[in-house]
Amino acid sequence: MKPRNTTVFLSLFFAATTVFSQDLTDKSETSAERQKPYWFVPSYLNMQYAGNTGFLSACAGYELYKDKLFFDFGYGYTPSSKSGTDIHNLIARINYRPWRKNFALSDYNFSFNPFTVGLAVTRQIKSDYTWDKLPNYYPEGYYHQNAVRLHLNLGLNLNCNFNKTKFDIYWQVTSNDVYFSYIAYYCHDNWIHWHKIFSQTIGINFYLF
Fold first, then answer.
1. pLDDT at position 202, please?
2. CATH 1.10.4160: does it fit domain 3-207?
3. Is residue 90 classed exposed, middle or buried when 0-12, 13-18 and 19+ CB atoms within 10 A define those classes?
4. Does the reported pTM lie above 0.90?
């Protein structure tokens, strides 16, 4: 996918967010006052940059428990210009926000979560460079399988409530099962740097309800 296609991807996501929210909600109501028409309708839409799930990813999410537990799933894409080949990921993740601090500035309400923790699973869609089991022409243990990854995410979250619009802005440090295995090498001979094990991500959740 060309860089311009990435722009199209972003534009389509935000256009869909606007249309979807207009169709399902009454503009005279705040997101907290709106009621889901059906249980399967997402609570929010997510857009994320980086974070081992794709250069860009888009997800639909659900609030599972009282501003603390959240689940979302979706699709992540990394263009060949960033990785040498196009990478397509399916994503499922759960996030927990144990503490929050509420405050207000002028007429706007905010909630700050100083610590969030999450787990994610990504499944890379089949390509010439994707395998569940290492091909026979590689020596055993030469590469890790790269079709499925388990991720650990740690970060913080700011929830913003501007009249009829509610959204989160978040930052996370993330790693996955393969990168964690490199820690043993780091401790042994210091040949790999920490920035190769952990990466950062930023994202936004736009609430529909």
1. 97
2. no
3. middle
4. no
